[in-house]
């Protein structure tokens, strides 16, 4: 597992360098290791190296890994994929975070199905900052209304906003799209919502995301390598 450990160290070094370049404290930026399609053994290896937050895109894969790694009590599971209403209970029972809320119905189901003995489920609203039809998420002008509804739901804690910008190597385009999330967070805070999370930045654009103000990076391929898909 030396390779995966080296990759994790390399990503952490990139985060440190990017933070230093813009005068930020690296402690302000959390690394979420996106482990979708990779085996629980890889997660356990990174856990032993000190990584605690892991992201999954598929509900059944999340549940399976939670069961396999049940002895790792302080793993923080983040669900970062599209969520259908018939799968909300499994996510409510197993995840600590959900990043992809863009409908009130899904938030209401998660709230109702979150076990009372667990802490509130941390929620991010997904915003379509690029305007691409292929991307999920709220339009910018829909965010405030949904946020003010979600924040009232019991057993949920609205933490912030998430986005997936268009795939681009143009730092100007990325900065513009990340700034949409930054501005929306400021608008929500001005309305009295106590948000602390901007979930933005992945393997290829984490430097731009850090420069824009990201507090949570979702990094997969730079740590785990190419995805493994079953036939």
Automatic annotation (TrEMBL):
N6-(pyridoxal phosphate)lysine: modified positions: 36
Domain named Alanine racemase N-terminal: residues: 11-227
Function comment: Pyridoxal 5'-phosphate (PLP)-binding protein, which is involved in PLP homeostasis.
Protein's recorded name: Pyridoxal phosphate homeostasis protein
Nucleus listed as a keyword: no
CDD domains listed in its UniProt record: PLPDE_III_Yggs_like
Family: Belongs to the pyridoxal phosphate-binding protein YggS/PROSC family.
Keyword annotations: Pyridoxal phosphate
Cofactors demanded by this protein: pyridoxal 5'-phosphate
Pfam families, sorted: Ala_racemase_N
Molecular function, one GO term: pyridoxal phosphate binding
């Amino acid at each position: 597992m030396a390779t995966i450990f080296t990759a994790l160290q390399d990503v952490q070094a990139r985060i440190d360098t990017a933070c230093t370049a813009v005068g930020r404290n690296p402690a302000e930026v959390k690394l979420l290791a996106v482990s979708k399609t990779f085996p629980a053994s890889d997660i356990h290896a990174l856990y032993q190296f000190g990584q605690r937050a892991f992201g999954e895109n598929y509900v059944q894969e999340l549940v399976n890994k939670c069961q396999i790694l049940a002895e790792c009590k302080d793993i923080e599971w983040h669900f970062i994929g599209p969520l259908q209403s018939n799968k909300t209970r499994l996510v409510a029972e197993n995840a600590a975070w959900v990043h992809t809320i863009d409908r009130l119905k899904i938030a209401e189901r998660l709230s109702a199905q979150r076990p009372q003995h667990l802490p509130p489920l941390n929620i991010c609203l997904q915003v379509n900052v690029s305007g691409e039809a292929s991307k999920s998420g709220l339009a910018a002008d829909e965010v405030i209304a949904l946020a003010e509804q979600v924040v009232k739901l019991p057993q949920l804690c609205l933490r912030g906003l998430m986005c997936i910008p268009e795939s681009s190597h143009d730092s100007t385009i990325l900065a513009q799209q990340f700034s949409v999330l930054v501005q929306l967070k400021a608008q929500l805070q001005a309305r009295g919502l106590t948000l602390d999370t901007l979930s933005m930045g992945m393997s290829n654009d984490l430097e731009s995301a850090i420069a824009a103000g990201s507090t949570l990076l979702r990094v997969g391929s730079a740590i785990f390598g190419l995805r493994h898909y079953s036939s």
